[in-house]
Amino acid sequence: MKKIEHIGIAVKDLEQSNQLFATLFGEAHYKVEEVEREGVKTSFFQCGPNKIELLQATNPESPIAKFIAKSGEGMHHIAFAVDDIEAEIERLTQEGFTLIHKSPKPGADDKLIAFLHPKSTNGVLIELCQDIKG
């Protein structure tokens, strides 16, 4: 793993949260994107060398909707950048981690993604991210 790629925050209202975080960071979001198959609309902020991803559910069965119903708004996951997501999935599987995704899938912000189950990472949802080469 190279670095923290972003921190994901689950929100109920993306527009309202965009205003709040724009005020907090002193800068507007740089991208809004909907990932239909995940039932989520995302917004990205650059904060110094770091990125923050806000996630709003677009349907009541999405993972974000279920997270908010159970835990409320707040930190959802930490994403780490990797060079080779398939090799990292294999390495982590061999090390005994439980993966939610056994193979990468397209995600927001031009990334391939896979999640590790929080039961194997001290309760923290971990996302692996690799830039889609194009």
UniProtKB/TrEMBL annotation:
It is an enzyme of class 5 (isomerase). InterPro entries: Glyas_Bleomycin-R_OHBP_Dase, MeMalonyl-CoA_epimerase, MMCE/EMCE_epimerase, VOC_core. Keywords: Isomerase, Metal-binding. It comes from the Bacteria. One of its GO terms (molecular function) is methylmalonyl-CoA epimerase activity. Transmembrane segments: none annotated. Pfam families: Glyoxalase_4. Residues 3-131 form the VOC domain. Its EC number is 5.1.99.1. Belongs to the methylmalonyl-CoA epimerase family. NCBIfam families: metmalonyl_epim (TIGR03081). This is Methylmalonyl-CoA epimerase.
